[in-house]
Amino acid sequence: MDACIQSLRLETALSYFAEAKEQGAGIEANRITYQSLLGVMVQRGNYKAVWQLVDEMQNNGIHSSVALSILLRGISCRSQAAELNRIVQLLDASSKAETEEKPVMDEALFASLAEACLRCGSLDLLWERTRLYSSQNVLPKLSAPICGSMITLFGQARKMERIMLLWDMIAAQEVMPTSMTLGCMV
């Protein structure tokens, strides 16, 4: 199955996956199996299959920060705002799940969320999530490049109050702004 995934032969990989599940030969799909399949499905833009696989993961109690990052990295344009909202709902549901494998809002996951929101033009969603995670004390340390992008886009949207609050967050987290980040403030 791995060879099929590596060579992007999704249909063959899925048939092996289905066969292994049917035979129940003591082989169970794990997070890595699901993440590998999700990566190819997202790369191909097959969101119907993506959401079927995500539903299966949830039914099997598999929650993964990596899977969420894969889904978020697949968001590429404004037309995918509905997909982005669904991923955020999944993130919320996963963080409340009663499992040992809860996704943790770490730097990589937040960066994936921020980048997806920025690509999709969902500045309100990004700001809402930034404030929510900050209030829950789970906001990871912001990176200077993400901050610069947020400052630029909030500036273009004329959201000066958000820029100032974001700058306060940057200072509170002791993020060392790069020359680019400072340039975004000008």
TrEMBL record:
Q: Can the keyword Iron-sulfur be found in this entry's annotation? A: no
Q: Where are the PPR repeats?
A: 30-64
Write down the superkingdom of origin: Eukaryota
- Alphabetized Gene3D superfamilies for the sequence: Tetratricopeptide repeat domain
Keyword Repeat in the entry? The reply is: yes
A Pfam family matched in the record: PPR_3
Question: Keywords of this protein's UniProt record, alphabetized?
Answer: Repeat
Identify the NCBIfam families for this entry: PPR
Q: What is this protein called?
A: Pentacotripeptide-repeat region of PRORP domain-containing protein
